[in-house]
Write a structure and sequence with these properties.
With 118 residues, the chain is of the alpha+beta class. 20% of the residues lie in helices and 28% in strands. The protein is built from 2 helices and 7 strands; from the N terminus they run αβββββββα. The strands form 2 sheets. The protein has a 5-stranded antiparallel sheet, with helices on one face. β2 and β3 form a beta hairpin. It starts with 7 loop residues before the first helix and ends in an 8-residue tail after the last helix. 19% of the residues are buried.
């Protein structure tokens, strides 16, 4: 059996490389209503899964009313919104980082929201 042995530095470099290609998870609070006929939904938290270039691969919007919307390549748009059309790199500094687990939990919760499943 062949066993590979890596030095501490090689393991560190490998770890850094894998982190580069891992998605990042961020959130931002939008402190204003939608500005349309759904203003009663209230303010919202925006959650994003982004790639190394800042492009959103998945996006979730959670309104104060409890309504949730979610977008991905499988569902990029609907009557209520759409997946971000530009890189979020410039916005990233204004956002809070969250864990993949936090994002996934919200994503799964939104899967049960009738609006998010459209």
């Amino acid at each position: 059996m062949l066993r590979l042995s890596f030095s501490r530095e090689q393991r560190r470099r490998r770890s850094l490389w894998s982190d580069i290609n891992m998605p990042k998870y961020i959130k931002k609070h939008w402190d204003q209503p939608r500005g349309d006929k759904h203003d009663e939904w209230g303010t919202s938290w925006w959650y994003f899964e982004i790639d190394e270039h800042g492009w959103a691969s998945r996006q979730l919007v959670h309104y104060a009313s409890g309504k949730m919307l979610r977008y991905s390549a499988d569902h990029p748009a609907d009557a209520f919104g759409e997946l971000a059309l530009t890189s979020l790199s410039s916005l990233e500094a204004e956002c809070a980082k969250i864990s993949a687990d936090e994002f996934e939990a919200l994503w799964q919760t939104a899967a049960h929201d009738k609006l998010a499943r459209r």
